[in-house]
Design goal:
The complex is a heterodimer of chains A (201) and B (350). Chain A has 201 residues and is an alpha/beta fold. Chain A has 8 helices and 7 strands. Chain A has a single domain, classed as Flavodoxin domain (Rossmann fold). In chain A, strands 1, 2, 3, 4, 5, 6 and 7 form a 7-stranded mixed sheet that branches. In chain A, a hairpin with a 2-residue loop joins strand 3 and strand 4. Chain B starts with a strand and ends in an 18-residue tail after the last helix. Classes of the chains: A alpha/beta (201), B alpha/beta (350). Chains A and B meet through helix 2, helix 7 and helix 8 of A and helix 5, helix 6, helix 7 and helix 9 of B.
């Protein structure tokens, strides 16, 4: 069983960001099924976590549903991250979630990035904002990023891009071997080595 | 089991009056708080070390602690923490040994790395080397209190040839050392390696967090042959505000909580109490919550409470200490029976 975490930062209900996230997760699940791979989709809606995210910024720790959401993303075999475009970039809510995700949580994780906006003029936000963010987080960002302006929901070409991106994500997720998840404490402990070596500098 | 208070020495505006104490007032108040802690029967007073506003904690804690030692008879004086990264370990060896003499042994110290980024470059250090500094500097400090004519060479400090730190520790017994860390396993390992104490600040994070660090320290303490894991020397922080009935405590403390430097403007007081060791309520509620710490930390040896922060005025803090004295008297009736620890030459009486 593989798990795909779908992080969606849409604020309205219904949300075109959530709609795009659903298209991408359905297509990814289908692509994995075609490889005979069972998959579980875990959707993380950020709007209900907005207060908890602010609290995390102020206190330094996650509680309740936010802690669970961060764990889902850190333990996922692949991530689909979808944000609305705000002021020529990802939304602050979207960024905050990845700001509080612990260091190393996405190391080597295949990530499909996607964004929605009212106008296609924002489409390069995927390349100048989202892709560098996830590269910094040491994720493996799939080559095809999916942008959907309002008008794309009336065109047939969106589904083609969705399927291509989902196919790329499915291939990486399928091929990725993952032996259990280590959190930051586990990784620090594993990296510490022998105390005598630390003593000897 | 020892009970006491620890202070960060913050100079914070009282949000209920808008009044900010002067540094002079804050420093004198700190002395009054330490004397009151002894009067109400607490065992330990610990001060932070700070090098930046808005703190009036001493840059060198022995300056404050030696003064308090002269004005008290019984309470043990400690730190929370002494910066092992940016202080010269030679000066720590000298200053704290001197304090040990002045206080007739009534002291110990807690080492920490410090998390204020600019303090490192102000003292010619790099925060990214915090762990390496803590390990090398303590290795030297440990030797300076145990050996004379030390020859030493390391990465961070000028070498020493034939150096003897003075004064020598009182009666040849080095001060007891705690190592404080919130999330770095290397520091729990370091405490275990030397058979020193491990202190978890504890108060700003959920319990799971503390439990993992304490468990690691305990298992490694046993691994290094210092005794059984359950007898490892653990200290915890706590944070309380009390009134005779809990509604009054919550009503009185909320304006301070809501704008407090560490957690202000974030979660509600009730949410924060549910997720961290903070207890705002009646003395009985403080007793109950504090006794609960053992459920995840095991039997431990030192409990320090934060009571004088976020702009609380002196008379309020002194009243809190009266109540804390009652709480501690009750907590003592629940102390685990004293276990025979394998005596090591450097342990002060716990």
């Amino acid at each position: 069983m593989k798990t795909i975490a779908v992080v969606t930062a849409g604020l309205s209900d219904p949300s075109s960001t959530r709609l795009l996230a659903d298209l991408l997760s359905d297509a990814t699940a289908t692509a994995l099924a075609q490889r005979g791979q069972e998959v579980r989709i875990e959707v993380v809606e950020l709007r209900p976590l907005a207060h908890a995210l602010t609290d995390h910024l102020l206190t330094g720790f996650a509680k309740g549903d936010l802690a669970a959401a961060l764990k889902v993303v850190a333990e996922a075999d692949g991530v689909i991250a979808v944000t609305p475009v705000f002021s020529a970039s990802y939304s602050g809510l979207f960024k905050t979630f990845f700001d509080v995700l612990e260091n190393g949580a996405l190391d080597g994780t295949p990530v499909l990035v996607a964004a929605t906006a009212g106008t296609p003029r924002h489409s390069l936000v995927l390349e100048h904002a989202l892709r560098p963010l996830f590269s910094y987080l040491h994720a493996v960002v799939v080559p095809t990023a999916v942008f959907a302006a309002s008008e794309d929901f009336g065109s047939t070409s969106l589904q083609g891009r969705v399927q291509r991106a989902a196919g790329e994500l499915a291939a990486l997720v399928f091929a990725r071997a993952r032996a259990g998840h280590l959190d930051q404490f586990d990784r620090d402990l594993a990296a510490m080595g022998d105390f005598e070596d630390l003593l000897n500098g | 089991m020892e009970y006491g208070i620890f202070t960060v020495g913050d100079v914070t505006t009282d949000p209920t009056t808008g009044r900010t104490p002067t540094e002079h007032e804050r420093i004198k108040n700190t002395v009054a708080i330490a004397m009151k802690a002894e009067e109400v029967g607490l065992d330990v007073f610990a001060t932070g070390e700070h090098h930046n506003p808005p703190f009036a904690a001493p840059a060198s804690p022995p300056v404050l602690l030696a003064h308090i030692a002269a004005k008290t008879d019984r309470i043990k004086l400690s730190t929370s923490t002494t910066l092992i990264t940016t202080n010269d370990p030679v000066r720590i060896a000298e200053d704290y040994a001197y304090l040990q003499h002045l206080a007739d042994g009534r002291m110990d110290l807690m080492l920490g790395r410090g998390n204020t980024g600019p303090v490192y470059p102000w003292f010619g250090r790099d925060i990214r080397e915090g762990i390496a500094l803590a390990i090398e500097n303590y290795a030297l400090l440990h030797r300076l209190w145990r050996e004379e004519n030390v020859d030493w060479q390391g990465k961070f400090r000028t070498p020493l040839q034939g150096f003897t730190s003075t004064p020598r520790p009182l009666d040849g017994t080095p001060p007891f050392v705690w190592h404080g860390s919130i999330r770095s396993p290397e520091i729990a390992e370091q405490a275990a390696y030397y058979g020193d104490g491990f202190f978890s600040n504890h108060i700003f994070w959920p319990a799971e967090h503390t439990a993992r660090m304490v468990d690691l320290y305990r298992s490694r303490f046993e691994h290094y042959g210092h005794g059984r894991a359950e007898d490892a020397i653990v200290g915890l922080g706590g944070q309380v505000y009390m009134a005779k009935n809990s509604q009054d405590a919550i009503r009185e403390f909320r304006p301070y909580f809501d704008v407090a430097p560490v957690y202000g403007h974030g979660p509600s007081l009730e949410e924060y109490m549910a997720t961290t060791p903070l207890t705002v309520g009646s003395p009985a509620e403080v007793v109950e919550k504090t006794l609960g710490f053992k459920e995840y930390a095991g039997n431990y040896q030192r409990q320090l409470f934060l009571v004088d922060h976020s702009g609380l005025p002196l008379d309020t803090v002194l009243h809190q200490l009266d109540l804390l004295g009652e709480v501690v008297a009750e907590l003592r009736t629940h102390d685990a029976p004293v276990v025979e620890l394998a005596e090591t030459s450097e342990r002060s009486s716990l």
